[in-house]
Amino acid sequence: MISNCSTVAIESDDDDGEGLYSQIVRTGTNALPAGTYYVRVREFGQNNTLGRYTLSVLATDIYEDDNSATRAASIATNNTPQSRTFHTGADVDWVRFTLTQSSLVTIETDGVTGGDTLLDLYAGDATTRLANDDDSGNGLYSRIQRTLAAGTYFLRVSEYGQNNSLALSTLRVRLG
């Protein structure tokens, strides 16, 4: 059961997980808003003892599922940061932006200490890579600066090596 106070249940599950264990998945329009939540775990019939169980919570950013260009979220070009996570090392984020005129564009990632991102810039077909960067930003974060013609562009952001999660990173696109 998930709740945002100690007495009101938001959702409950019996056996949607592996075997007879529980699993609750909240994504898209069903995602939980920011806040504090409580999880209550109990044995189904409350008539038996479980020697051991594992409880885990996987929290993703509000842009998931953005793991492909066809599911790319839009980003403003006014330097407004988008907060993102790489909840697994294999997670990638696709983002798109549109320019109405030729512009100098700066694209940057930043985040928690020790984070390392890889940034790829693609043309509007989302297959032609125009630029990529690993460590030109703050610390091991990425930064691409380039003059681009009017049109739509795609960004692919990942954790470098795709072998570590990253609890928090930001992505910004600015003109000039």
Mean pLDDT across the residues is 84
Structural class: mainly beta
Individual helix count: 0
| Cα end-to-end separation | 49 Å
Unreliable stretches (pLDDT < 50, length at least 5) are none
How much helical structure, as a percent, in the residues? under 10%
The beta-strand count equals: 12
What is the ordering of alpha helices and beta strands? EEEEEEEEEEEE
Strand order of the largest sheet: 4-6-11-8-9
Write the layout of secondary structure elements.
Layout: E1 2-3, E2 9-11, E3 38-39, E4 73-74, E5 82-86, E6 92-99, E7 103-111, E8 117-122, E9 129-133, E10 143-148, E11 151-159, E12 166-175
Parallel strand pairs: 4-6
Antiparallel strand pairs: 1-2, 1-3, 5-12, 6-11, 7-10, 7-12, 8-9, 8-11
Short description:
By secondary structure, the protein is mostly beta strands.
Structural notes for this entry:
Helices cover 0% and strands 38% of the residues. It contains no helices and twelve strands. It has a five-stranded mixed β-sheet with strand order 4-6-11-8-9, with no helix packed on it. A four-stranded antiparallel β-sheet has the order 5-12-7-10, with no helix packed on it. It has a three-stranded antiparallel β-sheet with strand order 2-1-3, with no helix packed on it. The N and C termini lie far apart (49 Å).
Observed structural traits:
single chain, 176 residues, 0% helix, mainly beta, 12 strands
